[in-house]
């Protein structure tokens, strides 16, 4: 039984199945951890969701900003951005089935035995693993609960730069979702700066979140979301899995135990 993690899929179905074939992925024995952004800009979001849903018992997803945006559009009756090629998904009779499958997924996963933390955008450097898991649970209970639509409505934009304990539930939800799904750079004060999407060479006085992380060396963080890193963090235990498949780069799959990487363009 092997555990694998895969970077942002973004509707790139061909690369997803090719990579899984390459490692002889067996859904009755193996497990696939997706770091989120399953859908959106690539050619076949519907096929990706159909495949992951059909293998639901062998799949976990830490939701990304695009996944949550899809759920919000559906709940709030909004049209998705035409840049997101989601029309076939919205037109599918299984659209709501796939949405419920996504909604049941977490924001973060901690694999105790493997000492591995997984989320779409990473781990806030001021949060311990324990706190991060607690915050993720809080936000999950909001989007999985009966008032999810209200929370989706409040999900967008920057959050107040106050400590989480000083925020009301809706701002706390937004701050946690922003951290787990949109974080890249922090200001020197430790606040999220959500506009700069470039690589480390264009930080402009900002600091990548993982530069400030002080984790024991045996703890690993696996994340996606930041294609401009091209898989490089300069830290051996901080592993960037979004290598920009949808932008003409590669999709990256990692064997969590052995640390072996597999890529498909
Ligand atoms: Mn993302």
Q: How would you describe what is shown here?
A:
The chain has 8 helices and 12 strands. The chain has about 260 residues and is α/β, with parallel strands linked by helices. The chain has one domain: Purple Acid Phosphatase, chain A, domain 2 (4-Layer Sandwich), CATH 3.60.21.10. A hairpin with a 4-residue loop joins strand 4 and strand 5 (about 115-120). Helix 3 (about 65-75) packs across helix 5 and helix 6 (about 130-145) crosses helix 8. Bound molecules: manganese (II) ion. The site of manganese (II) ion has 6 residues, from helix 3.
Number of domains: 1
Radius of gyration, CA atoms, in whole angstroms: 17 Å
Question: pLDDT under 50 segments (min length 5)?
Answer: none
Biggest sheet details:
5 strands, mixed
How do the SSEs run, as a string of H and E? EHEHEHHHEEHHHEEEEEEE
As an assembly, this protein is single chain
Strand content: 15-25%
Fold-level CATH name? Purple Acid Phosphatase, chain A, domain 2
Just give the CATH class.
Alpha Beta
Q: Helix- and strand-based class? A: alpha/beta
Instruction: Work out the helix count.
Output: 8
On the 0 to 100 scale, the average pLDDT is 97
| Helical fraction | 25-40%
Ligands bound, unique: manganese (II) ion
The CATH superfamily name is: Metallo-dependent phosphatases
The counted number of beta strands is 12
Taking the alpha carbons of the first and last residues, their distance comes to 26 Å
Across the major sheet, the strand order is 3-2-1-11-12
Shape: globular
Q: Which second-level CATH architecture applies? A: 4-Layer Sandwich
